[in-house]
Design brief:
This protein is an alpha+beta fold. The protein has helices at 4-21, 26-34, 42-45, 58-69, 156-166; strands at residues 92-102, 106-115, 128-136, 139-149, 152-155. Strand 1 (92-102) and strand 2 (106-115) form a beta hairpin.
Length: 167
């Protein structure tokens, strides 16, 4: 008869293997956005007019695609700036990434951006980008990106939704 310790060790090993098989955690995904490798396709998923958005939830990717599709090819698509840097030209030296909250189905990860060169900001909060995640089919997917414009809160999901409502 197996001992309790053996059963516990087997259960923990199974849980660890299952978690590993389900892919990276939200913090790892956000870290990859700001490193040069983009291991999980997250940085590419956040580019304007990206051909594929594998790191985004199905609903967020579909919303963004509808917004892109309704924007004429000669126009700059919504939102009109780099979401990951919350700017049009900020060079990021590094990002300090931490999990703000997480449960089994949802997570929010905060990236505090450290500029590589002086860059004017109206508020220090403009250097803080929040990534909201959901679990889809056992994998973490970005479901929204939030930050501020000056002191006004901003959400990619809300911006795309408003843009589509105006068209």
């Amino acid at each position: 008869m197996p001992s309790r310790r053996l059963l516990l060790a087997i259960a923990l090993s199974f849980a660890a293997a299952t978690a590993f098989a389900q892919g990276p955690d939200p913090a790892q995904i956000v870290k990859s956005i700001y490193d040069s490798k983009d291991r999980y396709g997250a940085a590419g998923s956040l580019e304007m007019r990206a051909k594929a958005r594998p790191a985004l939830s199905k609903s967020f990717a579909a919303l963004w695609k509808r917004s892109d599709d309704r924007t004429p090819a000669e126009d700059e698509p919504v939102p009109g700036f780099d979401i990951a840097s919350n700017s049009q030209g900020l060079e990021i030296a590094r990002a300090e990434v931490k999990v703000e909250r997480q449960d089994a189905q949802r997570a929010t990860v905060v990236a505090k951006l450290i500029p590589g060169a002086p860059f004017h900001r109206n508020s220090p909060e403009e250097n803080v980008v929040r990534y909201d995640f959901v679990r889809e089919n056992g994998h973490w997917k970005i479901d929204d990106v939030r930050t501020t414009n000056g002191t006004k809160p901003w959400s990619a999901r809300k911006t795309f939704t408003k843009s589509l409502a105006r068209q």
